[in-house]
Amino acid sequence: MIDEIKAALQDLSSSEKKEFLPKFFKAGKGEYAEGDQFIGVTVPDQRQIAKAFCNKVSLAELEELLSSPIHEYRLCALLILVSKFEKSKDSTEKKEIVEFYLRNKKFINNWDLVDTSCYKILGRYCYENQNDSILKDLSEEEILWSKRIAVVATMFHVKKGSFALLKELVLKNLHHEHDLMHKANGWLLREMGKKDEEELLNFLNLHYQKMPRTTLRYAIEKLDEDLRQDYLKSRM
């Protein structure tokens, strides 16, 4: 079955995309995704393949796909995993999917792989089981992608109007050295503000002066322009 998925993806590959994607995802020497390999398949096409094979492939088979050096294979595996989790009505099966995700998290090693999957699986699981220890533990790891998984997974909480975990995890890694964390923190704060602007403003008033500039810019993107300028120019 995995060979069929790989063949289907290869059939949809584009030489133009194959050349572009390593640059877009920073896979060059010394960049954060150094060594990542691409065959040149668009995300909409990957979603179609994932939909076609979701009910035909097992977790054991997915492990082979997710451990591939080919980026599109890994993303397709995660799209299938998300679909399996969302369709499942069985708590044991959902736990198995979460354990599978955590066991293979070393292969979830670029921002699109993280952002496409983590809040729909880990975030939802933690929220629905009222147990955030998984995300707190990930936020303590020294691996960039684990930290990004932790904060982006709180998207599910934010969508449900629950903000405490997001604020805790943002503050824990507020001064991480990588801009991918600055962007993730700012993005999730912005999402909180879209849900409840007062919550965002209260958080910003306490912390904006010590935020990395990128985090602040992302967080205030949807605010009134005059208010944005007040924060950017430290007039609050």
From TrEMBL:
<dbReference type="InterPro" id="IPR014825">
    <property type="entry name" value="DNA_alkylation"/>
</dbReference>
<dbReference type="Pfam" id="PF08713">
    <property type="entry name" value="DNA_alkylation"/>
</dbReference>
<protein>
    <submittedName>
        <fullName>3-methyladenine DNA glycosylase AlkD</fullName>
    </submittedName>
</protein>
<dbReference type="InterPro" id="IPR016024">
    <property type="entry name" value="ARM-type_fold"/>
</dbReference>
